[in-house]
Amino acid sequence: MQKLFRAPFYVALLLALMFSPLLASAAPDDSSDQDQTAETTKPVDAPAALGSLQKRLDTIKQQVSTAKNDKSLSGLSDDALKLGSDADALGTALQPLRAQVQAKLDVLGPAPATGALPETPQVIKQRKDLNASKTALDNQIQQAGAIKTSANNLAAQIGGLRRDALKTQLALNTGSIFGSNFWSALTSPTDDDVERFGEYRQQMKDAWHLTWQPEWRVGSGLLLLAAILIGVFGSRVLDIPLAWLTPRWLPEGRLRRSFFAFATAAITIMTLGGAAKLFSLAFTRMPDVSEWVAETGELIVRLSIFSALIVGLGRSLLSIAHPSWRLPGIADPVAKTLDSFPKMLSAFILIFGLIEGINNLVGTSISVTLFGNGLSALLVAISAAFAPMRVNRLRRKLLAKGEQPEARSTLAGLLHLATSVMAFAIFVALVVGYVPLARFLTYELLWIGTVVACLYTLMHLAIDLSESLFSPSTASGRLLKHSLSLNDRHLSLAATLLSAVAKTVLLLTAVTLLLGGNFGTTTPLEIFSKVVDVWGGKGLEHLNIIPAHMVNALIFLIVGWYVLRSARRWLDNDFLPKTNMDRGMRASLVTLFSNVGLVLLILVTLSVLGIEWNRLAWIVSALSVGIGFGLQEIVKNFISGLILLTERPVKVGDLVSIGGVEGDIRRINVRATELQLSDRSTVIVPNSQFISQNVRNATMGNAQGVATIALTFPLDIDPEEVRNMLLEAYEAHDSIMETPAPSVSFSQLGPDGIVLSVTGYVNSPRVVSRTKSDLLYEILKKLREAGVSLSRTQTMVLANMPERGVGNTVE
């Protein structure tokens, strides 16, 4: 069984041929249909009957072009089949008449040769009338046959439309899987299905016999032998040199794990996919092979590659043989429990995908198509539900034994929950009877899971490869460092930038695959192709919202928002701090990037949704009126915010004064700017005020602070001594810059004393107040130690004297 899971395509074709008794049933016995009734001379109005049949055919064609649901198409299919039967009956009824005419002509014999005795005029006229009747009957029989062929072809086209409708009409109730209608494909197959599968089986037999003809026998045997050997032993053989070369060629670190996981998946895809291609070539390389056989071979190859991808991802992520190199944090017991599920799932996908492809190829009935879709959805849902159940049971057993299983992350828990919910939804849809919905959910589950697993593996490989390539401890990093004269900071910056570019490309690729990807022969998202008009009104009368576009837009919005937030965090925390930009410049760039990215995200989401801007002229007009009356201030602040972020007259971290308020800029938003005052309170200032008012930016251009202290001394001091003490106090302070050097200026000489002004520069205006306070403490201390006092304040007192006059007393 293990070998069967590892190379499921070896028996896929045989399993597909044995899947339904439709293929094994013998052709119906038509002997009873070949019993001829006695010749009758009952007259048949062939022209009128043919006219009626042609009119019915035209009516059915017109109704098919306007049919909207499966019930209408089903009735039209029955009408087309009935029309073909009536046309066949008419042709059968005309055959005896033609035989009678031919018998009369045989009695008359051929016309006499030239020179023989001439016939009577009555005989000549009779032969002419009989030939005309024969020609008319031949034309009528041919026309009846053409109508029969057209009716059968129309029935086949209606069947194709119904199969396509199964992919778009998710709300189509086709019957529960427990109902008899679902199993009618096995219990009571239609004659048309038996005939089509019989023809397909005959072509398979012919291809089998042609493959083993003497001129092709040796090549076919070698191709099949190579396919078996490569499929069974190819990945095992290549795993040995991979495990030996990985620790010897790659540097120590996480790159070994991610590369080993990627290489394991690639080896599995190449070996199993190559084996499937050799298997297909063994039966399709002959020039006389039929079209159905060739298309079946291509189908096997495509499905085998996708199945091999699932098997390869399972082998790479679980890494049973090398648990120390396992990429995700999964415990060994859990990994061993999950080991068989990717192989079993790939076998289901291959077998039932092949059956569905064959059904589409030969054009089977709707019942057979529904049976294949429902059964494949059921088995895939069982696998998807059974795997989490076994893992949870194992985790409970480990906890009961006192062993601690691996810590499950939030993302892993969400994936586990989403898988379980999706499997339950598939079960419910199948039980209720919505097989198309179950098929859609099954394919979405498989496709999304595959894309996410590939993204996880490639994302780790890209990050680890970038870090290893530019790491100073690796040979490549040292080579780049010495050859380009780079330092470690530049190497770290390059690694961060390269990993970000790689992650962005991978995320965009994953989103593209999720929005419009497909696997095997089916596009899951094409099921939402039914167009539903949900908007109306003037200007939107031609706007149609397609459900598939709604899903695509929702997926794009969620993923785009996550990418935008991740890119903003990466810029703010990883990339920009490694540059030489100041904090304000970094904050402005992050804000500008967020605003522009949000606008682009909204525009692209609307585009994915299918909204054309030329249909929204009335909305733009309404917005213009609203802007003119009530939104002009918001728009003005928004534009001003963009100007602040681009021209940067002020930036985050600047100390500004505006409107009598002074504080540090903490954040520049779309509408307003936040200022933090010295008391830690916040003032919200509209962005337009920074454009229209005078703003003092104390820190613009790396402005320095100036700490100036003016002191008044008595006239009897030694100015030189005091000057030296002031300079010593300034020079001793840590905040005072050496260049430009502190200086003392003789500011004023007057009757009140000598005014000396000492000036020193600090690296920021924010520390001026604290520095001046420290300097005053130090200066007063030095003055007291030196016995130098500051000038006293002189006060004049005026007193009223007796009548003799006024006396003045001065202190």
Automatic annotation (TrEMBL):
Q: Species lineage, top-down?
A: Bacteria, Pseudomonadati, Pseudomonadota, Gammaproteobacteria, Enterobacterales
Q: Compositional bias (Low complexity) at which positions?
A: 27-38
Record family assignment: Belongs to the MscS (TC 1.A.23) family.
Q: Which SUPFAM superfamilies match?
A: Mechanosensitive channel protein MscS (YggB), C-terminal domain, Mechanosensitive channel protein MscS (YggB), transmembrane region, Sm-like ribonucleoproteins
Cellular component terms, GO, for this chain's entry?
A: plasma membrane
| Keyword hit for Iron | no
Which of UniProt's keywords are assigned here?
A: Cell membrane, Membrane, Signal, Transmembrane, Transmembrane helix
Gene3D superfamilies from the xrefs?
1.10.287.1260, 2.30.30.60, 3.30.70.100
Span of the signal peptide:
1-26
What is this protein identified as? Mechanosensitive ion channel protein
Region spans: Disordered: 27-49
**Subcellular localization:** Cell membrane
Q: Does the keyword Transmembrane apply?
A: yes
Q: Which residues cross the membrane?
A: 218-238, 259-279, 299-318, 344-362, 368-389, 410-434, 446-470, 491-515, 545-564, 585-610, 616-635
